[in-house]
Amino acid sequence: MINKTAKNTKRLRRAERVRYKLRQTSERPRLVFNKTNRYLTAQIIDDAKGVTLVYATTLEKDFPKHENSKKSKSAATELGKVVADKAKKAGVSQVVLDRSGMVYHGRIAAFADSAREGGLEF
């Protein structure tokens, strides 16, 4: 049986290690993707200034409706498009993807691919 606490602790350690390396590159803001049990969130953070430039979540009222849920792969694809659109309006074109220690697969890959199609470079 997998110890859930140990699994989450390892993920958090990976996330901190990667975030430390990403913060060293201050010329590009971080695109942070996070998934919860119910929703998906994404934000673009400028670490040099400590400011969130763009924020989007599947919880927003104007987010497109999905037949499955607000945490599905199709919702992640739509979230990537929304974040890319908001980033264009904010004048951000180049970012660094922060996966929060999660594997680049499934919802994260769908989100990243749609954000790239929307015009973000990473």
Q: Which features characterize this protein?
A:
alpha+beta, 3 helices, globular, 5S rRNA binding, ribosomal protein, RNA-binding
Structural notes for this entry:
By secondary structure, this protein is of the alpha+beta class. The chain contains 3 helices and 4 strands. Helix 2 runs parallel beside helix 3. The mean pLDDT is 89.
User: How many strand elements?
Assistant: 4
CATH architecture: 2-Layer Sandwich
Summed up, the domain count is 1
Q: What general outline do the C-alpha atoms trace? A: globular
Q: Give the C-alpha Rg.
A: 14 Å
Structural class: alpha+beta
DSSP strand (E) fraction? 15-25%
Give, in spatial order, the strands making up the sheet with the most strands. Answer: 3-2-1-4
Rounded to the nearest angstrom, the distance between the terminal CA atoms is: 37 Å
The CATH topology is Nucleotidyltransferase, domain 5
Share of residues in helices:
40-55%
Subunit structure: Part of the 50S ribosomal subunit; part of the 5S rRNA/L5/L18/L25 subcomplex. Contacts the 5S and 23S rRNAs.
InterPro entries: Ribosomal_uL18_bac-type (IPR004389), Ribosomal_uL18_bac/euk (IPR005484)
GO molecular function: 5S rRNA binding; structural constituent of ribosome
GO biological process, one term: translation
Secondary structure: elements and pairs:
Layout lengths: L3 H20 L6 E6 L4 E7 L4 E7 L15 H18 L5 E3 L8 H11 L5
Parallel strand pairs: 1-4
Antiparallel strand pairs: 1-2, 2-3
